[in-house]
Amino acid sequence: MIANKKTAVSKIVLFEYLGILCIISFILLYRWNDTTLFGVLGDEFGYWGNAAALAGFDWKSLMSESAYYGMGYSVVIAPLMFIGDYALRYHCAIILNCIFLILSLLCAKYIFSVIAENSTPQEQIAGAMLSVFTINAISQARIAWSETLVSFLMWAVIALMVSISEQVAFWKMALMAITCSYMIMVHQRTLPVALVVVSATMFFLLKNKKYKETLFVLLFFVCLYFLVGYIKNIQISMIYMHSEKSNVNNYDISAGLVSEYYQRVIENIKTILGSFISKLIIAVLCTYYFLAFSLTDILVRVQKKELDKYFWIRLVVLFSALLMIFLTAVQMNGKSRSDLIVYSRYFDFTLGPVILFGIMDSKKRFSKYYKYLPFMVIVFIAAGPNIVDYMADCDSSFNHICSTLPGSLLHFAFGSSMDWAGFKVLLSIYILVLAVTGIALIYSSKRKIRVFCYTFLLCLNCFLANEVSDQVNLWRYAMSFDAMLISDETSDSTLYFLASEIENFDFACTLKEYQFMYPDQSVQAIDLEDISEMSMTDCYLVTSSPIEWDIYPYIKADSYCLYYFD
User: Fold this and answer.
1) 419 CB contacts (<8 Å, ≥6 apart)?
2) pLDDT tens digits for 63-78?
3) What is the DSSP letter of 368?
4) What is the CB neighbour count within 10 angstroms for residue 537?
5) Which of 148, 229, 302, 565 is 20 to 30 Å from 286 by CA-CA measure?
């Protein structure tokens, strides 16, 4: 009897893992032939430019026109630079992203199995899948940049904290410090989360009278932090040539930075508060309402002093999400872009663990909080039109990949057009659908209904992620068209461009796409007055405006002219 039960459980678990493989395959294969070049030009080029430098290629001229991007992700993709075919190179980066997703799943399942020790294997796998395969995670995995790696590192940090709660060991302390430092190296916006994790770990160790371990974590992390800073300085010197553009995205902990943020908050408190509330609503929806219930549960636990040995981890998970939402609101507010008020990319990586802990606590604790859900739905639906009106008041574009949930709804209903009135209705429908599914998931004791809810949410995430991916592929096509045209005409000769024209966005995209396609060629920047002094033979000159010489463009496109000198 016991053997038969184990066999049945094994079959169910096998079925769940096959489901994971199907979703991973779906992520890999969706619009596979279109996913061959950059979709988010500036960011992706920065990471690949660092990787090119590590592989020995000279992209300095274009990199000096790029904002700063961390070296952590570039280390991972640097070996791919030796793949000659650019499409295969990009595909391999997407495969790496899927490996990070699988590793995130394993971390999530481990966390679930330890904390919810009475849960079944299929509950653990289902909870992990719903936590990892969010709209954001699926769509970001189809872009060769740092987002998927950052999310995995967040999962790894939480898994390490759980392991430390079970048994303290020096190797775990070292791995924790290394992971936090590497996370900062991948992207500097993770610095607040790393500091929260290290501080909380030290507090946990002190509380348990682990003084040697506490000192070890502090010293080891501080040393690694300064090492990361040292590497960054070398990177800016050798790859970015200390250019003015490299100051963009380049942050350090300093009194000046803290003072700048403080002044920004004081001077723009109303705008930032509105931005925070809007982003908080988006975050609650992205976590299937679990963020709101987790906050309520934390307050109840503190009030009733129901603090188990994992409470400090719950606190870190929740505080990290709220902190990053606030910091994103400070950075992303105003009307320069219509997506800024709902911009979520900077805090998306913290939301997966919030979902997982919400699922683990849902049956045991959250059912009594769900009576407040109708009130929350009414508030969200009432607030929705104000948020949309604010977005509609902006004349500029909407960046779908930086705001995946509203971006997916926008693209699904209206494509490239902006029907803001219709978007209000669609957002309200989504709020209601999530609420109904959540109630069924929390209150139903029938396994079939719960399986249906899990499956429905996963399918909804995949469907909406496809909408974001479709928009990114439209960007890919638009940005790569001119680069493809140049590649059809040019030889192995040096390709020059006018540095004074780099501010033309379409022109910059063309050159960066071309550089990725031909990494061993060196696109060099020159000034207009230096052209007469150079030996302009067997080379090409690309400029976004015609030159005043008695020579005609080899190719004349809308955003650039290509001249050939023989």
Assistant:
1) 413
2) 888 888 999 999 999 9
3) G
4) 9
5) 302
Confidence class of residue 533 from pLDDT cuts 50, 70 and 90?
A: low
- Token duo for residue 115: 């904390």
Give CA–CA dist 121/106, Å, rounded. 12
CA distance 217 to 255: 24
Element (H, E) at 555: strand 555-556
**Segment 123-151, tens digit of pLDDT:** 888 899 999 999 999 999 999 999 999 99
Task: Tell me which DSSP letter residue 370 carries.
Answer: G
Rg (CA), the chain: 25
319: its two tokens: 């505080």
Q: Is the pLDDT of residue 249 over 80?
A: no
Name the nearest CA neighbour of 38 among 76, 101, 97, 90.
90
What average pLDDT does range 445-453 have in this prediction? 84
Percent helix / strand / coil, the chain, rounded to 5: 75, 5, 25
Token pair belonging to 40? 């988010």
Confidence at 534, pLDDT banded by 50, 70, 90:
low
Tokens (6 digits) for 508: 């910059």
The per-residue pLDDT for 536 is 73
Lookup result for tokens 């992205």: 286
What letter would DSSP give residue 269? H
Q: Which two tokens stand for residue 96?
A: 């790496």
- DSSP 3-state of 415: coil
- Stronger pLDDT, 212 or 420, i.e. the higher one: 212
pTM of the model: 0.91
Can you give the length of the chain in residues?
566
Amino acid at 100: F
Q: Which two tokens stand for residue 240?
A: 């970015």
H-assigned helices in 393-446: 404-414, 420-443
From the CB of residue 109, how many other CB atoms can be counted at a distance below 10 Å?
Answer: 23
φ/ψ of 498, rounded to 5, equals -85, 120
